[in-house]
Amino acid sequence: MTQPSDRDLAAGFIVIHGNQSETLRDLLCDWMRAHPLAPLENEVILVQSNGIAQWLTLSLASDPAPGTDDGTPDGMDDAGSGPAGTAPAGTPPGASGLGHGLGIAAALDIQLPSRFIWQAYRAVLGDDAVPERAPFGKELLTWRLMRMLPGLLHQEVFAPLRRFLEDDALLRRRHQLAAQLADLFDQYQVYRADWLADWADGHDVLRTPGAVVPAEALDAGSVAAGEGGRSGLTGAGAGLDADGHASFMSSSQNLHAQTMRQGMPSGVRPVPEESLWQPALWRALLADGDVADIDRNRAAVHERFMAACADPARARPQRLPRRVLVFGIS
Question: What are the C-alpha distances in Å from 267 to residues 67, 185, 213, 235?
Fold first, then answer.
């Protein structure tokens, strides 16, 4: 649907930081009031949790500034103050001391980032190329791992997981571990897709951010590592902590020295020995899924999405919102 000319939005990117969440919330309300969308257009807001979503909804539904019903204080007309309910020109947003609610919370689409990003993938690449639910999403991965873990623990590479799951008659530890690992791989798909691509190809390595390494160089590095025995750094990696969290906590100096000895290319280091179960588990997940799903994990879909977005001839799909507001607390 073509938007009215008076509702056109200028392209741009605005980042506002603050140390008080209430001030940022008030600023968000003021911005939405000053720059409304078309009457039948939903406002898309991304939040980090359902609790923040509920808090924002209640804030938007709260009463506006005292005075008239539209939020314009008594004695202030629209011509002199700008959009209804905002402070006079020159007053910083959030500093007027007036009410900040909109009086109603309607036409809102408040989502978690992962859901929005997956919907963006489908809008750009098409529903046929991207399934409605991510085959390697956190929710599905949790239950797949619950099913798969018992059949993997006999392999020596999964010894850290086997030790963690000892004395687990009620399967509480298995479910806890499956949830943690699903979250770990979900984050890898977003932030370290290059690691997952290398692991899927059988290369147990970690690229440094921005490193561009040809596959031939990785193959040569693997051969060099194999000549000296098992790759990795004994005692340098972290397997699982007491809560089932996995991480890489290796000494950068030791890893650099190990990389040089193994002939690995620059910008790449071997996966620590205690964490070799992570690439092995990723390959097991790929082997467990349907063939069509292998190219539908978030990392692979993201690469195709970025390539499509880089095409200057491609117009914005109608299913993507014109504006996205992100409210986060770090």
Answer: 62, 22, 7, 22
Give 26-67 as a DSSP string: HHHHHHHHHS---TTPPEEEEESSHHHHHHHHHHHHS-BSSS
Angle, to 10 degrees, between the axis of helix 193-200 and the axis of helix 298-309? 120
Domain annotation covers residue 310: no
- Shared domain for 322 and 248, answered yes or no, is no
Same domain, 142 and 168: yes
Q: For the chain, how many helices (H) and strands (E)?
A: 13, 7
Q: At what angle do helices 172-191 and 298-309 cross, to 10 degrees?
A: 20
Q: Are the CB atoms for 33 and 86 separated by under 8 Å?
A: yes
Note the pLDDT tens digit of each residue in 164-200.
Answer: 999 999 999 999 999 999 999 988 887 888 899 899 9
Q: Is 125 inside any structural domain? A: yes
Report if pTM > 0.90: no
Angle 172-191/277-288 helices, nearest 10 degrees?
90
Question: How buried is residue 286: exposed, middle or buried, by Cβ count under 10 Å (0-12/13-18/19+)?
Answer: middle
In which residue are the tokens 């539908």 written? 296
Q: Is the dihedral of CA 15, 21, 26, 29 positive or negative?
A: positive
Contact present, 28 and 56 (Cβ < 8 Å): yes
Number of domains in the chain: 2
298 is a domain residue: no
Query: Comparing C-alpha atoms, which of 256, 138, 282 is closest to residue 204?
Result: 282
Rounded Cα distance between 251 and 270, Å, is 12
Instruction: State the CATH number of the domain containing residue 275.
Output: 1.10.10.160
3-state secondary structure of 192: coil
**Residue with more model confidence, 69 or 9:** 9
Element (H, E) at 148: helix 138-152
Tokens of 171: 């399967």
Residue identified by tokens 């190990």 is 258
Residues 66 and 23: beta-carbon distance below 8 Å:
no
